[in-house]
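One chain is below:
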Amino acid sequence: MSMPAEHQSDDQVENRDNQFIEICLQQKLLDTKTAGMLQSSATEQGSWIGQTAVRHGVLSPADIDIVESLLHPKNVVPGYEILSVVGRGGMGVVYVARQIDLDRIVALKTILVGSATHPTNAARFEREAKALARLQHPNIVQALNFGKHEGRYFFAMEFVKGRTCEEAVTRETVLAPAKVWMIVRQVASGLLHARHHDLIHRDIKPANLILLPPPEGSVMASDMEVVKIADFGLAVFANDHADEMKLTTADKIIGSPAYMSPEQFSHEAVDFRSDVYALGATAWHLLFGAPPLRAKSLAALSVLKSKPLVVDRSSLPVQIPEDQMRLLLRMMAPKRDKRPGSYEELLQQIDRLSDIDSGASSHSPVALGKSADLLPPDDSTSDALTQTMEMPHTEMSVASARDNSTGSHSKGWIAIASLAVIILLGGFAFVSNAKPMRGPRVYTRVLRSTPLFDGITLGGWSTDGTMIGAWNTVVAPDSSNAIASTSKRTAITRRISQTGPHRISLFLWPQSGSGVVDIDFALDSVNANDVRGCLRFTDNEILLGHKRSDFGTFDKFVQLAAPEAMHDRFVVVDIEYQKADWYVFLEEKLVGTLRIDEVGQGDAIRLVTPGGTDVRAQPPLVYFSDLWLSELAEQ
């Protein structure tokens, strides 16, 4: 979008760079110190500041795309003017925009240019637009326009200026039962309409329900609100004959764990009753101030959801009548055939609720099975469980189950297609003073990729005398195939054939109490005591440095906080051999760099676990999966 620097005067270049930096600071993409260093480097090199930022790893191509869109607001999508950024997800950005010909404000969702290169992302984005375009209902955000311009997909929809149910319950702690059931009824009405068009939402939760004042002249009470269902990005067609229209992401179970149905955890077929479950969990949150279940891990949460709730009503902050509680529990029944059999039935049951305006009752507890922890969330894990996520897993089916006994490897392809842009449960906070301005990161284009793990055997891995412990292929907690050791103190090497610029990508899942887990790179497979780079995972930190042996002294250069819920999922690592440095990324975030002249190039990686910190923790202490070697070239 920008005019090439060779066609601009020095004043124009300086003004352009200043505007670029100003937007980066406004969007909190850069801090002041890094921005100053970036400007100095761009001036010295005589290059465009955006290109300099990408080469040094301080901004991603997706970041550049957002900044350029804000710099040139009328050049992004014909007929629309970008006004501001509303939000950003794993593959797209939502802007507030003005539709120029009609002079109206819309929400404009665009797929990031880098993400559009992955066919799954582009297809899912297009299908969201087509799915929403089918729906014409007062309780569903309205689709307006969809198209593609210069490789960029865009999707214009009704701009709804209101508060979400999540914001409402955060501010008010709990909502009045009458208001909650009015919300539930409207959402059920909207989902009934979607059901008539063979659509399942799959991500019903308070954050995806927008509340608006009643329209002028409405018969609704002034203290009631209209609900709009938003974000059909995870919607899926229930029609068995529309496989090409399914909006699943291969190898993922998708949803927000706190509200997800048990079948979404256990890889079973989903249908409209999965949305009924999520709506029940949402209603519970609005009534009582927290999701119905909380747990320290996804595995524990899945177990709780598989069994009926036992509710000690004396512990609840609000007492509701017996029939309201029974309907809630029926909506959240672990077995789908125990939930309402249709939205029509659900609406009828809501309409028959007695004493719906009452918030007080002294009925006895309803005991139906497994006890639930009903305390409000008080840790970051609980927060993470309310966020939309993509859990690494075998492909989930719709309307019919599929064989997933062979494991899967598409996580690796996602890591290769980009810098592992799947953000499962949020990012991680930098707590270091690492200097990002190292040598340029010029090799980012993937020429070819080779698996380092075939998903079945340890073929290619050194199982000779250099191996420590008992390594094998095992089934990970998400049922995918992985490499792991059944010993606590372990190490294993994989030779790397690539001598030029390359990227090593891998997924790992440290278990609670695993202690230290090292990914050693730039390793000399012949001289085991030569210096090597090391990315170290502890129970709560990520460290980057180097060492000279498997269990020897570790010299730390970078220290970061660990990703949220790291012990409940796979996290992805990318290690790049660039021009002068090793670049290390964790979930698309730059961890840091190590100079090649300090640690060398090496010819292998080594996975090392000195042993767990918790004597009760039993191996495997960590699972490794989807390891790939990609040959890189200049973009």
User: Anything to note?
Assistant: Residues 1-6, 240-253, 358-382, 389-436 have pLDDT under 50 and may be disordered. The domain at 163-392 is CATH 1.10.510.10 (Transferase(Phosphotransferase); domain 1). The longest strand covers residues 622-634.
